[in-house]
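Incident log, support desk, overnight shift.

02:14 A customer reports that sequence design results differ from what the structure should imply. Their input is reproduced verbatim below. On-call engineer (initials T.W.) acknowledged and began investigating.
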């Protein structure tokens, strides 16, 4: 008998092996993205927590940007932020003198333009607040 004619009976056909390499790759990429995003969020929060901004500086900046041509809005802004910034005795006294002057420009439909003395008081208060902060 010819050796090429002998049937081979003990070799079995190939068994399909499941390929999960794509799923493993996707899991590694996803977990890497999650860890990286958690690290970025942690560092962002820590950086913002360290940057404590003094709100008084923001209030003072808003007072410096007052548009004196709009008397009603200027009176409301000066009252709101002036009360918050009046911390020492001198600024409280100026604010007490300024509030009755500002009362004329609030709670009315049409108001006259700011008079020079009121503007001077407002600018004096802002300069004193700059020096105090």
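02:41 Re-run completed on a clean worker. Output:
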């Amino acid at each position: 008998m010819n050796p090429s004619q002998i049937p081979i009976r003990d070799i079995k056909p190939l068994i399909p092996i499941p390929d999960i390499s794509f799923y493993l790759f996707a899991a590694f990429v996803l977990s890497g993205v999650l860890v990286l995003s958690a690290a970025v969020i942690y560092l962002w929060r820590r950086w913002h927590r360290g940057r404590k901004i003094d709100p008084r500086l923001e209030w003072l900046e808003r007072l410096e940007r007052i548009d004196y041509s709009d008397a009603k809005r200027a009176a409301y802004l000066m009252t709101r932020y002036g009360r918050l910034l009046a911390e020492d005795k001198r600024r409280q006294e100026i604010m007490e003198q300024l509030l009755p002057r500002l009362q004329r420009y609030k709670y009315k439909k049409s108001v006259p333009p700011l008079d020079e003395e009121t503007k001077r008081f407002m600018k004096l208060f802002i300069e004193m607040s700059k020096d105090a902060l």
